[in-house]
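Page 47, continued from p. 46.
Same chain as before, 325 aa.
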Amino acid sequence: MDTSDSLKPSAGFSTRPSADGNSRSEIGSGQAIQDLLPSRASYPSLLRRLVREPLLHFLLIGIALFLYFGRGAPDETDARRLVVTQAQVEALARQFETTWRRLPTDQELANLVETYVHDEILYREGRSLGLDRDDPVIKRRVRQKLEFMAEEMAGRESPSDAELAAYLQANPARFTRPALVTFEQIFLGPGDSDGSDRRLAAVRLALEHGGDPETLGQPTLLPSHEDKAAVDLVAKRMGEQFAAQLETVPLGQWTGPVISGFGAHLVRVREWIPAALPSLEDARSPIAREWESERRTRALEEHYRRLRQDYRVAIDAKQPGETPR
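Result:
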């Protein structure tokens, strides 16, 4: 074997003596360099191999964690930093003024701020321990605040007269004024007691001779007369049967016995005003109040309906009375 051929430099390489006299090989220019570099056609396959390389994935995850905990994570000193702003101090002062009808002194204001800091620190510490989770009182308070926000976002414009008039016509039962009655009564005693007919006749005779109605009959704590009393309230106090009879008795005449929940009465109805639907001018305030209440209810229902569409609810429990499978 000719060793001289093996010592010849290959194509693309050249030798030159170095400063120490030894020969060193160096890469030549031209085609030899292009042969050593990957071809452009192999770039996509190389990128695909890099994307699938697990080591690259771990490297990227490590960089992300370093950036988060090194720079992005909040400092513990910031989490325990409590700033009382000028707006909060002014709100505390306004609340004090609303309650006590005067501005707080400097010492009182300092005490208010310290109380605020005290409550805020305890609140933050409680949250850090998870004491706010699964608490029905806190859940109810948060729900109420969200519902209040939903009500306010629904609109604050006052209803027009046309809207109130339409609402009045659509809900007459809510605003119909009950019948009003003015009457006098003389209590005769229990309705089924012996001698009730005799007492009734004696009272009638006394009235015919000018007797005072307030001095006749059996002693009772019931009022001797009512002036424009709502019939529905009379029915609650005296009974439905008594109120119904007041509508049928002749006006201005003593009539009896009229039976109530307490017993028998002799009554004289002086005035009966039938039930009526008021005009918008006469009942604007209650109509507007009911309109606003219904608007808020609709706003809450609509707000919940939109929220409910974004949730998928799964009930992982058997219904009451359902036998296990």
